[in-house]
């Protein structure tokens, strides 16, 4: 798939880009099968995170991370020439894998609050990140599609504090726009681009794959990142926070 000059310009100007039908139905069904295998996997080598649902009574799997070496299908996707070419067209630089995760937004689950990815203290690993989001299902406002600040005014600078929810008042004239997708569509956004998503108020899971690449000469960047992440935030089987039903 060849990306046009206007799409490249769009990414540079606004810090994000949506591309329709980047993956075929066949590719998506193979990714979905693999995600289901990982959901069921009992392996302690991949990292799973659970979160309370909106009732505050049920712990649901909501993130799977660190599967690169344990899933051939997803490793091939991450390392594919198709993605490398796309990233090179957008940046003219060589990007390497920073982190990989599957964001599961189960039925009846909470929102993801406004943030810039670099607020996770990412700037110590690299100055530039791009996340490739692949929709495995249709996403729309009711099941919590991604909502991106499309103003292009906040895509080059960190605006929020580390590990804190971003307040839209901290942003320069943000313009939030829903980013509904069909299976096979992708969204690309950089590490500064503010984004969030609403609750999933449907009875089906909203599953997306998020692969983040970064510009770094250090081949161990991902390893170092995950080592630090797991020591600060180890995989959990239970969301230990107090019940927060409908508060956020
Ligand atoms: O899965 C979502 O809806 C948003 C997640 C997100 O913003 C993130 O993982 O950085």
User: What's the tally of helices?
Assistant: 5
CATH architecture: Sandwich
CATH topology: Jelly Rolls
The total number of structural domains is: 1
Could you give me the name of the CATH homologous superfamily?
Answer: q2cbj1_9rhob like domain
Question: Any idea what the radius of gyration is?
Answer: 17 Å
Provide the spatial order of strands within the biggest beta sheet: 1-9-6-11-4-3-2
Q: What is the N-to-C succession of helices and strands?
A: HEHEEHHEEEEEEEEH
Strand content: 25-35%
CATH class: Mainly Beta
Summarize the structure.
The protein has 248 residues and is an alpha+beta fold. It has helices at 5-14, 25-40, 72-79, 81-91, 221-232, and strands at residues 16-19, 47-52, 59-65, 96-105, 112-115, 129-135, 146-149, 176-179, 186-190, 195-197, 206-214.
Core attributes:
binds 2-oxoglutaric acid; disordered C terminus; 5 helices; alpha+beta; single chain; seven-stranded antiparallel β-sheet
Describe what this molecule looks like in 3D.
With 248 residues, the protein is an alpha+beta fold. It has one domain (7-232): Sandwich (Jelly Rolls). Helix content is 23%, strand content 25%. The protein has five helices and eleven strands. The protein has helices at residues 5-14, 25-40, 72-79, 81-91, 221-232, and strands at 16-19, 47-52, 59-65, 96-105, 112-115, 129-135, 146-149, 176-179, 186-190, 195-197, 206-214. Strands 1-9-6-11-4-3-2 form a seven-stranded antiparallel sheet. Strands 5-10-7-8 form a four-stranded antiparallel sheet, with no helix packed on it. A hairpin with a 6-residue loop joins strand 2 (47-52) and strand 3. The longest helix has 16 residues, at 25-40. It is globular and about 45 Å long. 35% of the residues are buried. The model is unreliable at 243-248 (pLDDT under 50). The structure holds 2-oxoglutaric acid. Residues 103, 105, 112, 117, 144, 146, 195, 197, 210 line the site of 2-oxoglutaric acid (AKG). The site of 2-oxoglutaric acid has 9 residues, from strand 4 and strand 10.
């Amino acid at each position: 798939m060849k990306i046009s000059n206007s799409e490249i310009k769009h990414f540079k100007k606004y810090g994000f880009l949506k591309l329709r039908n980047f993956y075929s139905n066949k590719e998506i069904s193979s990714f979905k099968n693999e995600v289901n295998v990982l959901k069921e996997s009992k392996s302690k080598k991949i990292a799973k995170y659970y979160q309370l649902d909106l009732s505050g009574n049920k712990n649901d799997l909501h993130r799977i991370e660190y599967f690169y070496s344990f899933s051939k299908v997803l490793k091939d996707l991450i390392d594919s020439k198709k993605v490398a070419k796309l990233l090179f067209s957008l940046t003219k630089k060589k990007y390497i894998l920073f982190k990989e995760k599957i964001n599961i937004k189960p039925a009846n689950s909470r929102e993801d609050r406004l943030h810039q990815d670099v607020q996770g203290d990412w700037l110590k690993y690299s100055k530039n990140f791009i996340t490739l989001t692949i929709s495995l299902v249709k996403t729309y406002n009711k099941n919590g599609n991604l909502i991106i600040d499309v103003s292009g005014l906040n895509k080059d600078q960190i605006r929020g504090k580390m590990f804190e929810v971003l307040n839209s008042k901290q942003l320069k004239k943000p313009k939030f726009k829903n980013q509904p997708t069909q299976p096979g569509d992708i969204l690309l956004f950089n590490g500064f681009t503010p984004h969030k998503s609403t609750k999933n108020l449907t009875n089906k899971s909203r599953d997306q794959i998020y692969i983040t690449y970064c510009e770094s000469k250090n081949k161990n960047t991902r390893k170092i990142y995950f080592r630090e992440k797991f020591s600060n935030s180890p995989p959990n089987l239970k969301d230990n926070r107090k019940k927060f039903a409908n508060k956020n």
